[in-house]
Write a structure and sequence with these properties.
Elements lengths: L6 H15 L2 E6 L4 E4 L1 H7 L5 H10 L1 E4 L21 E9 L2 E10 L2 H9 L1 H21 L6 H12 L5 E6 L4 E4 L1 H6 L14 H8 L4 E9 L2 E12 L2 E13 L19 H13 L6 E5 L5 H10 L8 E5 L5 H9 E2 L12 E2 L1 H4 L4 E5 L6 H13 L1 E3 L6 E3 L3 E6 L3 H6 L5 H7 L2 E5 L9 H16 L5 E2 L1 H9 L5 H15 L4 E2 L6 H9 L5 H16 L3 H11 L3 H10 L6
Parallel strand pairs: 11-18, 11-19, 12-15, 15-18, 20-21
Antiparallel strand pairs: 1-2, 1-5, 3-4, 4-5, 6-7, 6-10, 8-9, 9-10, 13-14, 16-17
Helix pairs in contact: 5-6, 13-15, 16-18, 20-21
Length: 569
């Protein structure tokens, strides 16, 4: 594979390394030609590469150079005896068992050298993870890397950091933060860095200045060291990555999701979901969440975690559909040094170990390979496992939450999923209904999404025209809440005034609304029952009055409510 053809995309990976960990890095192809590098690397070492050094890495897989310029492989290099780098970690990039290049981390200052030396095993783990990220992206996309694929790996990478990490937009609004940051910031539902950083520091961050180890006192009992790097596109500052290191004070156990990411809806179904969630948040029992794509299964899993006593521990996600079968075991259980060709010499922790004390979320569990299902079942029975290639038993204390949009009973009938494993995963079952079956949540969802995107896009859209609302209520929403959120974001971008009008809606949405069939009699019946229960009440007296008004027996009403998946408020 010609990495040079993907230099623009690969530079995004190096930006992630810089933003997340503040490391100078470079990527070389398998002929030892520099493909992309960070700005400081280019400034210090230029584009000329000492070929024997890179070929040594391609041959040996991983090389750590503690004294650059004074190693045997440095003979013949123009920097021999006087290398600007003080430490380098280099790792081979593989694709289909074939080496395609090398990723390097370099230190050019005493502070960076001391940081890498102090946590050398940690940074070896990081370079391995980024090499694996590059390989997976190339493998999964036929050679085309895109930012959407990169985003899928970010949450796991940020959870590797013991420090707090958050990312902002150009206005200082918080776009994302890892679990450590949520715990450090006292569990507050923060929206902006202005909520906890002094204004003069915020101004420096948003103008693109790089901040290193700036002390901030949050309150009488908590102080932090703050470091930031700007996020730039074509030299335009798009935001910042902020790292927080606790200097003193207590770490509060209760962390929460940001307000914009909490579950929205106060109708019968969501009220039932929230009530059941509160009952089980601190239970160690496994939870299985079912529902169509886009109904909010992942958000419910996060909500359970962050409302529980485990909220100060990691929330780790595995998307079972996106991991090649050959890599699944090492991804879940980790591996020991030398377990297989290309393995990191220090070994690697798996997702189960990373989730210790917290929650492991197995998304799209229906796609887990059959050979892995038996091994996961053993973990759920014994709460222990062994790394790939290892003999030492690792005990695990992670709550398992799984989710799927597939019919699990059908999967079991087709011998694609083990019934005994599903019984262990499905101890507590929560079903997320599609949006078309809980349209009573539409007003609250629209209000929440408007607030979210007004803040993110610095807009001032406050409402939707009645004609737009009528279309929303007519539409069947095959993509559910995720689709609604995307459409609201589109509308906030398109709206010229404070009200979203029909012309601000996506063209595909208008086509699908006009082409979809009229509402079914059953759907209209369910909507009528819901409206009357909302009017008369969901208690026994209200149900009796609803049945009387509809001219049916109370028993028939309960049967129809059950068929429509209604739950008591």
């Amino acid at each position: 594979m010609d990495l040079q053809a993907h230099s623009a995309e690969l530079s995004q990976v190096l930006q992630l390394i810089q933003h997340l960990f503040g490391i100078e890095s470079a990527i070389f192809d398998n002929s030892a030609t520099l493909v992309v590098s960070s700005s400081k690397y280019l400034e210090k070492k230029g584009t000329m590469v000492h070929k024997p050094s890179i070929l040594e890495v391609i041959e040996q897989d991983e090389v750590t150079v503690f004294t650059p310029g004074n190693m045997p492989s440095c003979i013949g290099c123009r920097f021999n005896g006087n290398c600007p780098a003080t430490l380098e970690i280099l790792k081979r990039i593989m694709l289909a068992d074939y080496p395609v290049g090398v990723l390097s981390f370099s230190a050019f200052s005493k502070s960076d050298h001391d940081r890498l030396t102090r946590d050398i095993e940690f940074f070896k783990q990081i370079i391995y993870d980024f090499v694996e990220l590059i390989s997976n992206l190339l493998r999964g996309s036929g050679g085309d890397i895109n930012s959407g694929n990169i985003d899928g790996y970010l949450s796991a990478l940020t959870e590797l950091m013991p420090d707090g990490l958050l990312v902002t937009d150009r206005q200082g609004n918080i776009l994302s933060m890892n679990g450590a940051a949520l715990g450090m910031l006292s569990g507050s539902c923060l929206k902006s860095v202005r909520d906890f950083l002094p204004e003069e520091l915020v101004a420096m961050i948003l103008e693109g200045s790089r901040v290193e180890d700036h002390s901030v006192t949050a309150d009488k009992e908590n102080s932090f060291s703050v470091s930031t790097v700007p996020i730039k596109t074509a030299e335009e500052v798009e935001g910042a990555a902020v790292r927080l290191v606790r200097k003193s004070g207590r770490i509060l156990a209760k962390a929460k999701l940001p307000e914009t990411d909490t579950m929205q809806g106060s109708g019968a179904h969501m009220s039932s979901i929230k009530r059941r969630m509160k009952k089980v948040v601190n239970s160690p029992s496994s939870v299985f969440i079912s529902g169509e794509t886009g109904t909010g299964k992942g958000l419910l899993a996060k909500s359970i975690h962050y409302e529980s006593d485990r909220s100060d521990k990691p929330f780790v996600t595995i998307s079972c559909a996106n991991i090649p079968e050959s890599l699944f075991e090492s991804e879940l259980f980790g591996y020991e040094a030398g377990a297989f060709t290309g393995a990191l010499k220090s070994g690697k922790r798996g997702k189960l170990e990373m989730a210790e004390g917290g929650t492991l979320f197995l998304d799209e569990i229906s796609e887990m390979p059959m050979n892995m299902q038996a091994k996961l079942l053993n973990v759920l029975q014994d709460y222990r496992f062994e790394r790939v290639g290892g003999t030492n038993t690792v005990r695990v204390n992670a709550r398992i939450i799984s989710a799927s949009n597939a019919d699990m009973n059908q999967r079991i009938a087709e011998n694609r999923f083990r019934a005994d494993l599903f019984y262990r995963l499905n101890v507590i079952n929560i079903e997320m209904l599609p949006l078309r079956e809980r349209m009573e949540d539409m007003p609250q969802l629209l209000t929440a999404f408007l607030a979210k995107f007004n803040q993110r896009l610095n807009s001032h859209v406050v409402s939707f025209s009645q004609e737009v609302l009528d279309l929303f209520y007519r539409y069947s929403w095959p993509g559910n809440i995720r689709q609604l959120e995307n459409i609201v974001e589109y509308c906030v971008n398109m709206a010229e005034g404070s009200t979203v009008k029909v012309e601000d809606l996506p063209a595909y949405f208008l086509r699908e609304v006009s082409n979809q069939p009229a509402p079914t009699l059953k759907g209209m019946e369910s909507a009528t029952i819901r409206e009357m229960l909302d009017h008369y009440g969901w208690d026994m007296k209200g149900k009796a009055r609803t049945a009387e008004a509809l001219g049916i027996s109370l028993r028939t009403l309960y049967r129809k409510m059950d068929q429509a998946h209604f739950s008591d408020k």
